[in-house]
């Protein structure tokens, strides 16, 4: 294991999720640099079922496996993401869907569970209200991260941050992210 991986899953460069990821990374005892999902080409799962045989994805060389490997080797994980229509952006969901091969490898005993690690989640929504605004995302992240032996320790749900600089102008949101980073002990 190395250090925690901080990843923004936003397709918009320099937006609120990126600012939240950067602030979280800077707030760690040993500051790090965030990774951006959008910097990696991601093909969607085609549902071919080939991974059911041996746990190997046949799609080939895109960024999915490289990022899965980074998850494998990190000591902890921070994911930040915007909320699009009550769920994750399409590239993030495509990446998550690609973990089906890892799930199949575990189900068939080709990949043994490892030691549990902690994950922190920051979700950023433009909407100011909506009872179920984050409800659909959390089970997806929880089951996705279980494949990689992560347990969501805490999640932060931020509302009303739509413009690219809204997070940077919201002291309460910034303090909440700093507090979350402090809780990690990393």
UniProtKB/TrEMBL annotation:
Domain of life: Bacteria
Gene3D superfamilies assigned: 3.40.50.360
Listed Pfam families: FMN_red
Domain NADPH-dependent FMN reductase-like: 6-109
Cited PANTHER family: FMN-DEPENDENT NADH-AZOREDUCTASE 1, FMN-DEPENDENT NADH:QUINONE OXIDOREDUCTASE
Protein name: Multimeric flavodoxin WrbA
Organism ancestry: Bacteria, Pseudomonadati, Thermodesulfobacteriota, Desulfovibrionia, Desulfovibrionales
């Amino acid at each position: 294991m190395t250090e925690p991986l901080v990843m923004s899953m936003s397709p918009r460069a320099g937006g609120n999720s990126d600012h939240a990821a950067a602030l979280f990374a800077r707030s760690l005892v040993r500051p790090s640099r965030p990774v951006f999902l959008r910097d990696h080409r991601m093909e969607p799962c085609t549902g071919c079922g080939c991974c059911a045989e041996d746990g190997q994805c046949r799609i080939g060389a895109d960024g999915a496996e490289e990022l899965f490997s980074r998850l494998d080797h990190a000591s902890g994980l921070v994911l930040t993401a915007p909320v699009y229509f009550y769920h994750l952006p399409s590239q993030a969901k495509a990446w998550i869907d690609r973990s089906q091969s890892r799930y199949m490898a575990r189900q068939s005993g080709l990949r043994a569970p490892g030691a549990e690690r902690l994950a922190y989640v920051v979700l950023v929504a433009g909407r100011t209200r909506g009872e179920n605004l984050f409800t659909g995302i959390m089970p997806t992240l929880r089951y996705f991260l279980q494949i990689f032996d992560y347990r969501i320790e805490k999640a932060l749900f931020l509302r009303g941050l739509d413009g690219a600089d809204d997070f940077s102008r919201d002291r309460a949101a910034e303090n909440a992210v700093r507090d979350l980073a402090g809780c990690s002990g990393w």
